[in-house]
Specification:
Blueprint: H1 7-14, H2 18-28, H3 41-50, H4 54-61, H5 71-83, H6 103-113, H7 118-132
Length: 136
């Protein structure tokens, strides 16, 4: 299933700034920083709305949650990674390169190399082709 989310509406609905949303996502766990055990999305949202920095969050919750060793440093590095291009790129100036798509190679990679289920891969590609036309 494919979901389309309007980022601006979502952040507005959560009553967060972009910076707070990035912090929220990191607190929930990301590729660059593990999550805090027993802190889910509702608690993370509460923390972000109540405190401005990870230092304040750790200080306020240090007796309630176990923050992994080096968490503050990982959190801050993660934040820097997510924010590194903020206000530095103009999407209207980016060069877009189009290339030929080789669906056969994609299927071979997904099924052969990373061992995804061939039936699921075929169904997903068919859904995408149906929604976008055969232009993929």
């Amino acid at each position: 299933m494919i979901s389309i989310i309007n980022y601006d509406e979502m952040v507005k609905g959560l009553d967060l700034t972009h910076e707070q949303f990035v912090m929220f996502c990191i607190l929930c766990g990301c590729d660059y920083c593990t999550n805090v055990p027993k802190v889910g999305n509702i608690t993370a949202l509460k923390m972000i709305k109540q405190y401005l920095t990870i230092d304040e969050i750790i200080e306020a919750y240090k007796d309630k949650y176990v923050f992994p060793e080096g968490y503050k440093e990982l959190f801050n590095k993660s934040y820097d990674i997510f924010m590194m291009y903020k206000d530095k790129l103009n999407v209207n100036e980016l060069e877009i390169h189009k290339s030929n798509r080789d669906i056969g190679k994609l299927i071979n990679f997904m099924v052969g190399d990373i061992e995804m289920n061939e039936s699921r891969v075929q169904k997903a590609i068919k859904k995408i082709q149906n929604s976008l036309g055969n232009n993929i």
